[in-house]
Backbone:
């Protein structure tokens, strides 16, 4: 369903994604696990036509997102890591607009918006402008919106960051259901080990732009001789704290943009 | 088509909801009308003719370009608040996203222009004929499309609002002054005349003035104005569409 080979993204001297190769099978739940600044989001952005790769080949459902971005966009949905709501619109309008943009038929859209707003407990706030929402409410709305349509591939970029445990569990139940009944392929990035362990069929561990290990959770534990995935993760990536601020890919990206490189 | 309509509607809703912005963008033309209308009115009147009749179409043009440029530059806000991504990955051509946004922004700017026109009648401006109202709205919309597209082009390149004052001072204000909105474009040095001739607003203001006050540039004409505006609207929206297509976030 997703094929990536030798994918690279450079910002000047900084290599954000370094020669990455992996495959995600049809109907699989695949997790990208890695510390901050590892290049997970950059990879997702390239797959979802938001960034052009420096080198390498990608295929989404046999479509090249670089050459046929519009066709590629028809195959996937995405929940972004950072906010992507319109603050001046109400919760309902944000949902509704998304449904229209993603070709959800009228009746289904209305039903879906109502059901999902109730699902994330925002139904009584549906006519409030998003500006008035707390961070957690916005995050819940974002998740609900991401679930409104049913794409072949769903990208979730750190979906549970900032989400309360209740909503997190509800969301995973629903995603597992979509995965089982509709065969939806799910690609997620996370730095919650237990989440990847519980949810993913296979995991790729990414660090400093490279994939350093791929396998099922059990294989990764075996490979590193550890009992928990967290230990496997630490054994592979080391214990130093990654600061996303200075010196990271994000920083270089901002600098690059300021200097007009794009 | 439905997607474009929804993106258009979003733009209108945002405008209607931000009262502060609405009042802010209306205050400026009113201040100009009062200051210049009363300030220059006296000296202008000595030469025969009514300065307010000359000025009002120019101020209408001004309110349109300020609002239109701003709606285009809103791309930067949407990028910062993240909503831009949501539209950029939607299963539709990016040019359609751009069309919806630009049409919405241009509609808002045109409404703003109509309001300013109505306000200027309160100050004593009398349109030569109210029958001109439909062609006037058409010209307003063309001006709005051109400048909303220019705003989009700028917004595609910049990723924060810090450069906004730069654009206002070095692009919007000169285009406004050199359009002949405030004073007749006569006796300008050659290079300034050249800039005024490539300034879309020159043609917009001239057309509005011909339609609303029956005065215009002697060597331009309503036909030329309309043709130039249609041509520029096409060119700038195509260029805007091209750069919008290329946005990476």
Residues:
């Amino acid at each position: 369903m997703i094929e990536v080979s030798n994918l690279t993204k450079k910002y000047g001297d900084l290599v954000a994604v370094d020669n990455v190769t992996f495959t995600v099978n049809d109907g699989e739940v695949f997790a990208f696990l890695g510390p901050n600044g590892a290049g997970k989001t950059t990879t997702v952005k390239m797959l979802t036509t938001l960034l052009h790769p420096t080198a390498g080949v990608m295929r989404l459902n046999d479509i090249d997102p670089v050459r046929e971005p519009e066709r590629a966009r028809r195959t996937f949905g995405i929940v972004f890591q950072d906010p992507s709501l319109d603050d001046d619109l109400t919760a309902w309008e944000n949902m509704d607009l998304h449904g229209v943009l993603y070709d959800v038929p009228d009746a289904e859209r209305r039903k879906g918006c109502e059901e999902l707003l109730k699902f994330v407990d925002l139904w009584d706030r549906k006519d409030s402008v998003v500006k008035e929402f707390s961070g957690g409410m916005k995050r819940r709305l974002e998740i609900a919106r991401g679930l409104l349509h049913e794409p072949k591939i769903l990208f979730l970029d750190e979906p549970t960051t900032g989400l309360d445990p209740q909503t997190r569990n509800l969301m995973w139940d629903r995603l597992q259901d979509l995965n089982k009944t509709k065969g939806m392929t799910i690609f997620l990035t996370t730095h919650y080990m237990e989440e990847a362990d519980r949810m993913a069929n296979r995991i790729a561990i990414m660090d400093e732009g490279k994939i350093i290990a791929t396998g099922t959770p059990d294989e990764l534990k075996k490979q590193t001789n550890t009992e928990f995935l967290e230990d496997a993760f630490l054994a592979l990536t080391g214990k130093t704290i990654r600061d996303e601020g200075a010196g990271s890919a994000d920083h270089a990206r901002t600098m690059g943009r300021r200097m007009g490189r794009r | 088509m439905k997607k474009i309509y929804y993106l258009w509607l979003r733009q209108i809703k945002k405008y209607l909801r931000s009262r502060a912005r609405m009042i802010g963008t209306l205050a400026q033309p009113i201040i100009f009308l009062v200051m210049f209308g009363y300030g220059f009115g006296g000296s202008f009147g000595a030469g025969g003719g009514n300065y307010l009749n000359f000025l009002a179409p120019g101020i209408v043009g001004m309110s349109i370009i300020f609002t239109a440029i701003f709606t285009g530059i809103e791309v930067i806000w949407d990028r910062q608040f993240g909503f831009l991504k949501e539209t950029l990955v939607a299963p539709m051509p990016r040019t359609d996203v751009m069309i919806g946004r630009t049409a919405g922004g241009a509609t808002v700017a045109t409404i703003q222009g109509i309001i300013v026109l109505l306000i200027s009648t309160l100050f004593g401006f009398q349109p030569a004929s109210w029958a001109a109202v439909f062609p006037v709205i058409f010209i307003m919309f063309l001006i709005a499309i051109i400048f909303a597209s220019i705003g989009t082009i700028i917004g595609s390149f910049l990723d924060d609002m810090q450069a906004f004052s730069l654009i206002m001072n070095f692009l919007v204000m000169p285009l406004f002054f050199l359009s002949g909105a405030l004073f007749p474009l006569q006796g300008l040095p050659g290079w300034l005349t050249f800039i005024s001739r490539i300034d879309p607003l020159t043609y917009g203001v001239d057309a509005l003035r011909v339609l609303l006050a029956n005065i215009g540039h002697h060597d331009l004409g309503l036909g030329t104005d309309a043709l130039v505006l249609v041509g520029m609207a096409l060119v700038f929206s195509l260029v805007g569409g091209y750069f919008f297509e290329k946005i990476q976030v």
Notes: The first strand of chain A starts at residue 2 and ends at 11. The radius of gyration of chain A is 18 Å.
